[in-house]
């Protein structure tokens, strides 16, 4: 056992293979009762809190894809609700002092996931001398629905509260509060892109790594209103925080699951006919409050060093297990994209519409539109020092057709391949995992990941 004192209270963790591990440590009070749809509030406790066991995670619906095991990444089998605004911490030595600190924000389209998922185990980072922190935050309706009478961008506010807690308590875990790197994937990367442009997050971190994310998945207040009013109508209540507080988590999850089901999503196109979520992510951060007073691109923190990149074949995660890759027609591809872009046909013509196999053409176009183009633009426009990467290793699953899909880099970044066989297969290249983990650590230590700024570093 290992016991330390934080600003919130004393916690008792455990030592595993020489690494000190603390689980489910609250950085904010449980968002229940009047704290639901409200800004995160401090959490304190008396005595010694047991931090040896996993705790609850944010309410969510477990997502499944045919023939693919994503449990190690999404962690949906954990208990949900209650005191879930927590962090997990791995450190090589709480008494060391001066260690770089890395905070990971999980993905999941702003509606799934947990920082406690098996793939995000921090042992490999800690063995390389890093204090590794993973966080949970509010998702979906509770985290990203701007209700009248409630606070906005609660998921982002949770992340900011977690970063404040980590800075305030870094030294207790052996870390340097002035050397903090935040990194995340998918919705986590998009969150970090927003934090880069948020005045409330200014000065909280020194470096950032954005994996398969960018700041363009944000909504205007008018566009977000479509989601607010649509959900309120389905639930039969006023579009207010007070009314939503009267509903159970099960009621909210049921209607949330309905609108994120393919083919059931509300029409989230704005006045220009564009859905920034490309039909995939109705819940997004919202512009116009103190968290995001302007678009994040307009206020990027030049003092933060950045790595940004994506995977070579992101959309294979969705197109291959579902079978869409093999059955979609040109007409269907245009119709699907037209649900989020008015110039759908013109876009797809640039990718070979009518001249290439439809599935491959559409996959390439959607990979760029949803992930790659935004990540490239983020790195190119960031006013500070910026590095780019691309993950090219291809999974052998589905007879090799799963490819370099969305999320595949995660078990390599964390060097947790053994927990992700359902995604990487039985013989993934362990040297690649060691290489990526070391590069992320090197960046956190020095700001230099090991390749030149402006050069796209290929992994795999």
UniProtKB/TrEMBL annotation:
Q: Where is this region: Disordered?
A: 36-61
**Known EC number(s)?**
3.1.1.-
Boundaries of each Carboxylesterase type B domain copy? 3-449
Q: Which domain of life is it from?
A: Bacteria
This protein's UniProt keywords? Hydrolase
Q: Which family does it belong to?
A: Belongs to the type-B carboxylesterase/lipase family.
Protein name, UniProt field: Carboxylic ester hydrolase
Q: Which organism is it from?
A: Kutzneria chonburiensis
């Amino acid at each position: 056992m290992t016991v330390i004192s934080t600003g919130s209270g004393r916690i008792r963790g455990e030592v595993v293979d020489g690494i000190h591990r603390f689980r489910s440590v609250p950085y904010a009070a449980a968002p229940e009762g009047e704290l639901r749809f409200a800004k995160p509030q401090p959490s304190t406790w008396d005595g010694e809190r047991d931090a040896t066991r996993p705790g609850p995670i944010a309410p969510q619906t477990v997502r499944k894809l045919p023939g693919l095991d994503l449990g190690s990444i999404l962690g949906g089998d954990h208990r949900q609700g209650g005191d879930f605004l927590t962090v997990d911490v791995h450190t090589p030595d709480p008494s060391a002092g001066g260690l770089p600190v890395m905070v990971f924000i999980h993905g999941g389209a702003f509606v799934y996931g947990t920082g406690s998922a098996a793939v995000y185990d921090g042992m490999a980072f800690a063995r390389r001398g890093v204090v590794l922190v993973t966080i949970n935050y509010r998702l979906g309706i509770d985290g990203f629905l701007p209700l009248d009478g409630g606070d906005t961008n609660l998921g982002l506010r949770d992340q900011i509260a977690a970063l404040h807690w980590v800075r305030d308590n870094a030294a207790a875990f052996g870390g340097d509060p002035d050397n903090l790197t935040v990194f995340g994937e998918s919705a986590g990367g998009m969150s970090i892109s927003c934090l880069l442009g948020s005045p409330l997050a200014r000065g909280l971190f020194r470096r950032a790594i954005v994996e398969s994310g960018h700041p363009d998945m944000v909504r205007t207040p008018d566009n977000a209103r479509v989601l607010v009013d649509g959900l309120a109508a389905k639930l039969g209540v006023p579009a207010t925080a007070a009314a939503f507080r009267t509903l159970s988590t099960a009621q909210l999850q049921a209607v949330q699951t309905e609108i994120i089901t393919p083919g059931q999503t509300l029409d989230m196109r704005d006045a220009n006919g564009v859905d920034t979520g490309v039909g995939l992510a109705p819940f997004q951060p919202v512009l116009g409050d103190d968290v995001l007073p302007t678009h994040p691109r307009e206020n990027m923190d030049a003092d933060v060093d950045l790595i940004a990149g994506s995977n070579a074949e992101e959309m294979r995660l969705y197109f291959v297990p579902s079978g869409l890759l093999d059955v979609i027609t040109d007409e269907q591809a245009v119709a699907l994209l037209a649900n989020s872009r008015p110039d759908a046909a013109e876009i797809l013509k640039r990718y070979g519409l009518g001249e290439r196999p439809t599935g491959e053409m559409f996959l390439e176009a959607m990979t760029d539109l949803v992930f790659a183009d935004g990540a490239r633009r983020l790195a190119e426009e960031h006013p500070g020092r910026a590095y780019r990467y691309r993950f090219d290793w291809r999974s052998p699953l589905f007879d090799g057709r799963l490819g370099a899909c969305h999320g595949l880099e995660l078990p390599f970044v964390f060097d947790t391949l053994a927990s992700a066989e359902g995604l990487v297969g039985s013989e993934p290249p362990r040297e690649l995992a060691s290489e990526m983990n070391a590069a992320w650590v090197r960046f956190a230590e020095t700001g230099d990941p090991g390749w030149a700024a402006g050069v796209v570093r290929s992994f795999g």
